[in-house]
Amino acid sequence: MQRLYRLPLTLFFFSFASQAFAFSPRSELEELIIAAAGSTVCSLIAIIVVLVKSNKSFLPRLLMALASPLLVFPVCMGGSMATSYLVKQASDVKKDQNTALRIQEETEAWQRNALRTAACNGDSASLTSELASDAHDQETKQRVLEDCILPRADAASLQAMLLDLRERNTGPRAHCAYLNPVLQSMDTSLLDVFAAQKLSLACPADTYSHTDDATPFAPTWWDVVNQQRNADTAKLLNTLRYLQAHGVDMKVAIDGRSLLSMAMESSKPELILFALDAGADPYLISKESSTLTPLETWTLQRFSFTDMGTYSEADRRSIQSRLREMTAKEADALTHKISERGGLDNAKDGGAGLLAYLIKSGASLHRMNSGGDGAFNAYTRLSPALQEVLNQLNDQQLQEFICPVPGKYDDGYAVYAQAIEAENKEIISFLKQRKMPETCPKMPRANNTSE
């Protein structure tokens, strides 16, 4: 009987030694299931051993056998999970050591790489010899360009690399692999290497899919504008002027985007003025109806729309002098894009200046708030300045404003009634003061609310 007391201890150590519980890579849930299964097996073994080895009478022996899992199962389960944890910790430490060793070996091998050594030392003769040896793949050459040649602005080494690339790949855009990182460096002395070989400085952008025959394509210098526009503006402009002087078309537009679109997004007056002076179209319309045109972006910026850029008065005048005012159709289109950007409340003056401009430009009062998706709705905060703008409307105009024509998919949006439902006290008080009706007359449905 005394030997039976050794059973839980034996099974406990067995669980520590069980490879099935811990020595294979598994998820925590899988380990838990395996540990539970193993502990169940151990419990069954304990029941059998007690039944077979015990000298007790049948009933006490049966009760002991049935009770043994209460001790064996948790002991084995704990041993299994402890083993799993310890093995996993040891495995992770070993894996981290192997990773660190591999990184160190790769770093040391890279430091010893002959092509890298030649490029980083500015040894053009050795660089040319290494390139001719066919011992280095294109990925290595690209890394050498970015690690050594660009930081040193080594035009001679770049020329050797470019000649090697063009000898191995005669495609019309083979040089683009090197032009893209050179453009990102915004070092015009390196661009001279491409210009001297009469290579195009307008390669397809990395961020757009393209083929060699795709035309027109989004140019790689767009990537530079997007990624560097918040960096050194003077350096970026110097690069763009260099490209312009070497025949790169600054007016290119793809899917409603252009240099001016990106310049407007940057809120950099110098970049905007350069794009306008270079001939980028401020009235470009995207196929995507919700996308702002450059003129729409500028109009929101001009009237201090939040997060749309901050300009001095001199900058505003300078930019606006190169643009015409909005047409009624353009003003109409913008009114239905404002709600997607937070509504008039997002302007610093509560939208008073912007709303006054849209009305002055001829935006349809009948369609301005159609469906509650226009510039103004029942939840708009009616600031004193905005109230002053609305007070300039006569009764008929104000009624058109608060009773817009129904759109394609709505039965009409009554601003007054909706304001009551929304408990917008400012609008309710104003419309009550102007003696406007709470309900709107039934009006014919519009075919297109943006027309």
Automatic annotation (TrEMBL):
Keywords recorded for this protein, A-Z: Membrane, Signal, Transmembrane, Transmembrane helix
Segments crossing the lipid bilayer: 32-52, 64-87
User: Would the keyword Signal turn up in this protein's UniProt record?
Assistant: yes
The positions making up the signal sequence are 1-22
Does Signal count among this protein's keywords? yes
- What this protein is called in its record is Ankyrin repeat protein
- Which organism does this sequence originate in? Undibacterium pigrum
The taxonomic lineage of its organism, from the top, reads: Bacteria, Pseudomonadati, Pseudomonadota, Betaproteobacteria, Burkholderiales
